[in-house]
Amino acid sequence: MRFFSVASAAAAVTASLFLSVSATKVSTKEVSGRYFVDSDSGEAFFLKGVDYQPGGSSEFTDGSDPLSSPETCTRDIVLFEKLGINVIRVYSIDPTLDHDECMTKLAAAGIYLLLDVNSPIYGQSLNRDEPWTTYTEPYLTHVFSVIEAFAGYNNTLGFFAGNELVNNKTSAEASPNYIKAVVRDMKNYMSNHIIRQVPVGYSAADDLNYRVSLANYLEAGPADEAVDFYGVNAYEWCGDNTFEGAGYDVLVNDFSNYTIPVFLSEFGCNESPPRLFQEVASIFSKNMSGVFSGGLVYEYSQETSDYGLVSIADDGSATMLSDFTVLSSKYAAATTTGLATEEASARPTTYLSYYNNISSNTTLPDTLASTVIANGLNSTYNRGAFVAISDLASNYSIYDVSGNALSASMTTKYDITIPTASAIDQTDSDADDDDSSSGSSASASASASGSDSSSASSTSSSSSATSSSASLSNFVSSSEKMGVAALLAVALGLTVV
Ligand SMILES: *[C@@H]1O[C@H](CO)[C@@H](O)[C@H](O)[C@H]1NC(C)=O
Ligand SMILES: *[C@@H]1O[C@H](CO)[C@@H](O)[C@H](O)[C@H]1NC(C)=O
Ligand SMILES: *[C@@H]1O[C@H](CO)[C@@H](O)[C@H](O)[C@H]1NC(C)=O
Ligand SMILES: *[C@@H]1O[C@H](CO)[C@@H](O)[C@H](O)[C@H]1NC(C)=O
Ligand SMILES: *[C@@H]1O[C@H](CO)[C@@H](O)[C@H](O)[C@H]1NC(C)=O
Ligand SMILES: *[C@@H]1O[C@H](CO)[C@@H](O)[C@H](O)[C@H]1NC(C)=O
Ligand SMILES: *[C@@H]1O[C@H](CO)[C@@H](O)[C@H](O)[C@H]1NC(C)=O
Ligand SMILES: *[C@@H]1O[C@H](CO)[C@@H](O)[C@H](O)[C@H]1NC(C)=O
Predict the structure, then answer these.
(1) Cystine design at 60: which of 92, 123, 315, 480 (Cβ 3.0–4.6 Å)?
(2) If you take atom 9 of ligand 7, which residue's CA is the nearest one?
(3) 285-328 tens-digit pLDDT
(4) Is-contact 261 12, C-beta < 8 A?
């Protein structure tokens, strides 16, 4: 009965579905040589980002995360748009929660996600000094459930398999081959169970003892155990400084031969406030763009460590701090189109015999999750997918640095294509993942009816009904998780278009 009523609702909107054409879709990005490139246009993608974990990454607990609450993420997306970013990094999520609305809204705003698969909860990360004590099947099951929860969103740019695991002599001796074991297991899981091979990388503490060695170790070897990208957490540029004074010339030189994308996964030293973010001009200049693919500022929200761009009050209102204004002007001045790109050499598929200052052991521990990698997770996991979205206004107030209330509605730059279940799942094991014609998708405008935003979708939706080959059965199967109410929201949005 429930199924039937969903089908009826779907039938009611099918006619208008064919009139809706995505003006622009949120395409995936993939790794090509030393750049992330748009899967469709091939254009290089330079990251202008912020690190995003309100509440602080070490305070994370199960039950809520930055992408599970539409109310808070909608508020923050409004601010991301004002900041002018195209990517966020989130350090910890609870894979059992529903992230569909926040991820769809981020996609509609043109914002991609870099996600760490670990969390500070016991059993959800490796112990860097004794990784063999924590590299277990339940740990890997957690990692795979994060993959399942996020691989279905086109705006998932990549997964970090680890963050700053190598940070002193003990961890440099103990961790490197375990980092690679996790990378290998993630890649093997995706190649068996996920259609899209989401890039897998590592985020490194910028310790000069390990900078070159660890980066070279992680990019090398057989493809299924090599990282696809590398993030450097760099805090060398403090206060008023220069490209050479901050050692950025050395940083660029150290990665000048790197064969995969490298970017600053954290930057923004706060030792001599106010932060000037002068490094942004260098990062997005020819001095760096041939080697680095941009970066992310640490961090969005004001926490005890005092790196915030935005202060969030107990009532949920958000106020820009002065760093926000400075960074937004620097990001606005930095163009990402037309930056110089350089060809990379082929990735080294064999290891060097010796890596300075880190373990040179290139034998990886055997996986402890071969059954899960072969069979997939059982039915208790959550698989994310885009949904229809409608509430684009933040329920929380947003204030500028002088305390003036600002318009608190996000705008949608992209239409979101709601995929079929079969477009995400290649195991074909879901009961509702029926028969049908391969690969077709139901295209639905994500922009809300009655939105005050001047969204691209409302102005540029042309009337050519193009190749939309959505079949009703596909739409129904993808819509089951949306529920009738959300489906009606789609119907409303579509009939307005
Ligand atoms: C995801 O990206 C691919 C490649 O850019 C594109 O063909 C596809 O239509 C997109 N899917 C969705 C659901 O937006
Ligand atoms: C704001 O609150 C209303 C009423 O509770 C709710 O329907 C709406 O979804 C909320 N908006 C967001 C963006 O969460
Ligand atoms: C590295 O740090 C760990 C704590 O994480 C500590 O137990 C260990 O002694 C340190 N090793 C060295 C060589 O300082
Ligand atoms: C190895 O570490 C030493 C200090 O412990 C440092 O001086 C040296 O530059 C490092 N070597 C490399 C290749 O990173
Ligand atoms: C990069 O490669 C060139 C040419 O092979 C070499 O001279 C240089 O030392 C390399 N740089 C680094 C940082 O490895
Ligand atoms: C680029 O590099 C040159 C030479 O090192 C330096 O003089 C200049 O200030 C740098 N420019 C930027 C924007 O980093
Ligand atoms: C290399 O790592 C593997 C897997 O952890 C281990 O079995 C082996 O003993 C290590 N080899 C050396 C020389 O430490
Ligand atoms: C599914 O997997 C989880 C995590 O490994 C496990 O706790 C649970 O018992 C499994 N359930 C079934 C029905 O196998």
Answers:
(1) 92
(2) 363
(3) 999 999 999 999 999 999 999 999 999 999 999 999 999 999 99
(4) no
